[in-house]
Each structure stands twice: as C-alpha cells, then as structure tokens.
From TrEMBL:
Gene Ontology cellular-component annotations: plasma membrane
Class of the enzyme per the UniProt entry, highest EC level: translocase
Membrane topology: Multi-pass membrane protein
Keywords: Cell membrane, Membrane, Oxidoreductase, Translocase, Transmembrane, Transmembrane helix
Protein family (similarity comment): Belongs to the cytochrome c oxidase bacterial subunit CtaF family.
GO biological process: electron transport chain
Subunit structure of this chain's protein: Associates with subunits I, II and III to form cytochrome c oxidase.
Transmembrane annotation, as ranges: 7-25, 31-51, 80-99, 105-124
Subcellular location, record wording: Cell membrane
The protein, known as: Cytochrome c oxidase polypeptide 4
Amino acid sequence: MKVAANIFWIIGLFFIAAATLYGFWVEWTEWAGIPALYALAGMSWMIAWYLNVTERKYGVGPADDADGQIADYAGTYGTFAPWSWWPLGLGLACAIIVTGLAVGWWIFIIGVIAGAYFTFGWVYEFSRGKYAH
C-alpha cells in the first residue's frame, strides 16, 4: 500500500500544480474548474492518507512484499449482500439530487430525503430482520 499511497500523494501535487497554473491562465475568473481541480487534489490526498493509516494498522500488504505471492491475496475481503436493493435506490436518489440541482430546489429536497433513507437502509441492512447479526 505504500506505493499506492505515494502515487496518490503525487497525483494530489499534480492537481494542485494544474489548478494553480489553470487559475493563472484564466486569470482566476473561472469558478468551476479551479475549485474542482483543488477538490481533486484533496480527494487524492484523502485516499493517500487512508492508505497510509491502513498500512500502519495492518502492516505491509502482499503488494509491498518483495517475496509476496498471488495466493497471499486470497481470503475474505468483507461481507457483501448480493440480494441488496439499497444501492439501486441510493443511485436513483443521487440521480434525483442532480436533477434537482438543474430543475428546482423541491426536487433536490426529495432526493436528499430519499438519499438519507436509502443510506440508512444500506448501513443498517444487517442490523434487523432475517440477516441481523
């Protein structure tokens, strides 16, 4: 994970440089692309930070082990529900939110309410009903 973290640190630096250069190029008058590029840098650094924290918590992964084998990646990566409908609803809620940004605030509010409902449903999917732990 160390190599991947370093790559994301470098990508973040690239986006900072690109945003600054772009800002000077458009004389800081364009307010969609400049913040978006800075946000990309921040998101890249968030991923790099997460990878660094994960490596400190779990140690060196198979990708960073010089003697690592493909079989070292075997095992369980998490619990996933293949029968779950919550992600589909959350995706539709996100589509409603984006539509609301273009059409009207009342559609946006409906999307936010639907998004909260589907997010809570997905998070607490294994906390109730037949599959409760």
